[in-house]
Amino acid sequence: MSSIFKKIIDKEIPADIVYEDEHCMAFKDIQPRKKVHLLVIPKKEILSLADLTPEDQALMGHVMMKVTEVAESAGLKNSGYRVITNIGQHGGQEVPHLHFHILGGEPVGPIVY
After folding, report:
1. What pTM was computed for the model?
2. Which of 21, 67, 86, 98 could tie 91 with a disulfide, CB 3.0–4.6 Å?
3. Has residue 111 been placed in a domain?
4. Which range of residues forms the domain containing residue 72?
5. 99 is a catalytic site residue
6. Domain-located, residue 110
7. What is the mean pLDDT of each run of 10 residues along the chain (113 residues)?
């Protein structure tokens, strides 16, 4: 069964896409936690960071560069932002497709351990 992100990639369901190329895309989170809450995903179906293989190295370098570019395009460069990825059930991962949250536009607060 395809994840909701795969359906967004395949344009089966709509999303407010802010960036897209052949390897990844970025779109607005439908349940934003901050003024700016964007998601950046690889188009390749990868469950989480824990499922990366050596073959994914170039793709992940590209995705991480795009995380920075998307954040800058959203006006977050000077004020700062947080990038989060969750891994597995105990890590809070809700969608089984690797994704990076970009949170900003207001203080995000300290990380609680």
Report:
1. 0.95
2. 86
3. no
4. 4-104
5. yes
6. no
7. 89 97 98 97 97 98 98 97 97 96 95 80
